[in-house]
Amino acid sequence: MNQQPLRQAAASYHACVESWRFDPILHFQARLGTGFAVGIEGRRRAPLYAFAGRPCQFRMQGGAPLQVEHGDLLFLPRGGAHRLFDTPHAAPLPFASIVAHRSAREGLTYAVDLEAATGGTAREDREPATVVSGSFFWSERLQAEPLLARLPEVVHLRRRNDELPWLAPMIDLLHWLSNVPEGGRGVGMTEAVNALIRHVVLQQLGHEHHERHDEPAPAAARSDARLLPALHAIHTRPEQQWTMESLAGLCHMARTTFATRFQQHTGVPPMGYLARWRVQSAARLLREQRMSLDEAADRVGYSTGAILARAYKRVLGTSPRARAQSPR
After folding, report:
1. What letter would DSSP give residue 43?
2. CATH class of the domain at 218-328
3. Cβ atoms within 10 Å of 289's Cβ, excluding its own
4. Fold of 19-208
5. b/e per residue 85-121 (b: at least 16 CB within 10 A)
């Protein structure tokens, strides 16, 4: 099979996800010891967990337990109530209490030692612990990206999977960066977790798998690949005055065919996807570069700041001013 179209598709997906940046609520490394249960309530917080040390179990509310082991990764892009535990009947410690038990903090990165907080033995005398490193994000900000919103409710990647050679070194890096007392002190965590999310999405979309194994892509992947020039253009050149016709032309499709396939693939009409990406890009410019509304509007393809503000409210349900004042 000619792999050139598949490689081009993979490159376009890479370009799309490379432009993502998600701001975390916080980063953490938690030493959980033995006999623990941690409970996360609600759907607003979307965690990424990297595991080390002793195995433990994970369970979504109403679901079956899932065994997680040293080097595994769990990602919940839509959030959701869940528990981490090694003792099924232990009373779960809520999220707020976990943060209150921090032993050290650097910026957004918290070091949590539940053994020490509950009067455990000296660290050198303890049994091997379960150690969880990672980050929490606002789930609605992740779900605003349609490609990421296609992920399953729970993504579980296993370190021993030989088809994921990138996973083990990235997990090891995450553990070191999030180690406040003895490691990277949180420096670089946001960049590392964002890179990890990008690779998780690429893996889930399946393009890296097909490229490595030289096997025919399924029909869904082939049809998705035809849309990638438009996705690439939207993500890398949002300031251009794209129309349905110009985006369809990039994909060598008729306007109606393009619109139908795009919505089937992303769950969003093409122009709605463009508006959402422009607003998300503007939100980052306003927050990170302190641009004015008019400056940000010019960078993402709106003629005035007032038009951007209306699009912002329509897409995100709030004004730029209110969003800037909301908790992160």
Report:
1. S
2. mainly alpha
3. 10
4. Jelly Rolls (2.60.120)
5. bbeeeeebbebeebeebbeebbebbbbbbbbbbeebe
For residue 80, give Cα distances in angstroms to 55, 155, 249, 275: 22, 13, 40, 27
Instruction: Locate CATH 1.10.10.60 in the chain.
Output: 218-328
DSSP codes of every residue in 91-107:
PPEEHHHHHHTEEEEET
Q: What is the DSSP annotation of 120-143? A: ---GGGSPPPEEEEEEEEEHHHHH
Bridge partners (DSSP) of residue 105 are: 110
pLDDT digits (tens, 9 = 90+) for 62-90: 999 999 999 999 999 999 999 999 988 88
Q: Which residues belong to CATH 2.60.120 in the chain?
A: 19-208
> What's the start-to-end Cα distance of the chain, in Å?
48
Q: Is 14 exposed, middle or buried (0-12, 13-18, 19+ CB in 10 A)?
A: middle
Evaluate whether 209 touches 203 at the Cβ level (below 8 Å).
yes
pTM: 0.76
